[in-house]
Structures are given as C-alpha cells and as structure tokens.
Amino acid sequence: MTPFRSRSRRPRTLVVRLDSAGDVLLAGPAVRAVAAGSSCTALLCGPQGAAAGRMLPGADDVLIYDAPWVGLEPPPVTRTATRRLMDTLMAGRFDRALVLVSYHQSPLPIALLLRLAGIGWIAADCEDYPGALLDLRHRRPPHRHEALAALDLARAAGYALPPGDDGGLRVTPPPSTTHLTGPEPYVVVHPGAAVPARAWTPGRAARAVAALSAEGYRVVVTGSRAERELTARVAGRYALDLGGATDLPHLAGVLAGARAVVAGNTGPAHLAAAVGTPVVSLFAPVVPAERWAPYGVPHVLLGDRHAACADTRARRCPVPGHPCLDGIGDAEVLAAVAALTDDPADQGEQTERGAAV
C-alpha cells in the first residue's frame, strides 16, 4: 500500500500492543511510522505497558485495556469491561487499527472487539484464518526481531517512517536523575524480571555486583517498589540501591546516564536500548534472542543458548540450578562490560552507540 500523502486524508489510527512495557517499547518504531501517516495516533495497551506507551514519540493518546487473554495473571472475562472498551473505542472514531502481536500470539480476539466497535479497517500478523476480522492479513518473515516485525506490518499497511528516522527504539527525553545516582560514572545492574526464568537468582546477581565493584566500577542497582528486598540483597555493601526509587521515566533517566546496563530479557533492557545505552543481556533461551535481544545498541548476549529450557517459554526455570544464566562466570560478565565501556579506570570516556556488538 502507498503512504498517505494529504494531511486531510490521513486517518485516525489505533495501534494495539497489549503486552508488557518491553513489548510496547519494541513497538515504538511502528508507532512513529503510523503517526507520520495519521491525523491522530492512539495506542491501546495493557496496564503493564501504559507507562511505556506514554513515553513513545508519536502516541497522541494511550488507552488501557486489561485483556483476559494476555499477561501472567489475566482478569476474568466480563461484560462490563468489554462494554467499557467498546465505548472507549467508539468515542475515538478510529478509521483504522494495527494489531501488534508476538509470533506466538493471535490478534483475532482483539480484532473481533475492534470490528464490533466499528473500526472499518484492521491489519495484523496472523497465522490463523481470520475470516472477516482482518482486512490485511500480514505474514511476518521467519526469525524476525519483534521491533522489525511491527515495523514491517506498519509499512505493509501504508505507513512509512518519516525522513531521518533510523527506526531505532526511542522514548521522550527522560528527566535528569543525577540527584539519585550522583555525578560519577556508573554501571547499572537490574536483577529483576517479571518472568523469573529470565533473570539471575538473587545470590548470583549479588556476586556479580561484588565482582564489578572489585574491578573498579561504580554500580547502581535498580528495581521496582515490589523488588526492594531483592535490590537491597543484590546491592549489599557494594552498590547504590535504587530499588523502588524510580518510576519508568526516572528509570529511563538512570539508564540513560549509565555507561552500560546488565539485565535479563526484561523491559528495562529495552528501555536502556531506547535511551541509547549499551546492554549486557543475560538472555535465557526460553524465548529466542533473535526476536527479543536488545535492539539498535551495542550489546553482548550472555547465557547458554542451547540449554534444556530453550524455546520452552517457561516462566520458571525447569532445570535445577538455573544453569543457563547462573552458570555465567564473573569473568564473562566483566569482559562483556569492559567491551562496552572500555577500561573501567577511564570512566569518563563515552562509548560509541547505535550498532550491535
């Protein structure tokens, strides 16, 4: 399809991404492409992705729907919630909708609701027969990164990135967080993840922080309010503990100020990429790295990609001892951080950003 040219002809477009904050951040390039060809662009996301959605350039509005088929603890199906969504969508007077899903998800439940709300043109990646639910049934190329797959769908629907946009992850400029971190250079360790299989165990994370500190790095440990006990244990006496001290915009500020971020396959790793900070990615192979690795920034992937848990999408490690991540040695971590930051003795240097290592 050809891009929309005349502003008066540009549609009101809804972009749907109902998953977590990391998934919403990966949708950012597609949202910007849609915004370049729309008179108004709204993002429909779940409660876990709303804060990230509000940080995406190009999103004029963020609508929230807690979908019963998404998330770790999905809500029950109710007429009340469905009618509320219908009312919200009809009030938006959307002409078109793009449903963004991961390769293993179906867009058809939300497509049905969008159709009932009167949205006349709907596009999505879809392996299942969509019947009358989709106007554009797009097929993603195999092994495609999630950020690129979303952008592919936008392009197939006639939306192109504006001139000068490189298609990387991006968020609105975060606030200054020097009052939280102090002015001296630092490395961030983010030990938590919504899915435990994708993170170090607390003891392993604490040992890595101690090793980084002994190597001469100043370490900042980040986490949510619910993770304060975890961050306190991991930081110990070796690092600055910012557990519970940041909302998502301020976390973006902390990550933007870091020389590198050490994190699992979780939202803050994608947030680090969105602010241009290199990532040491502790990547458990329960999902493929080719689809969810840090996108568009220098990064090093650590972890056993051929472990017994590979491609299982397990939420908790099925192998005793969590060897795919806890088996990563301190020397590997230190080498990865050094590769992204240069010599720790010269922490005032800035590393080049924008390409994968």
TrEMBL record:
Q: Does the keyword Transferase apply?
A: yes
Keyword annotations from UniProtKB, A to Z: Glycosyltransferase, Transferase
Its transmembrane ranges are none
Q: SUPFAM superfamilies per the record?
A: UDP-Glycosyltransferase/glycogen phosphorylase
Descriptive protein name: ADP-heptose:LPS heptosyltransferase
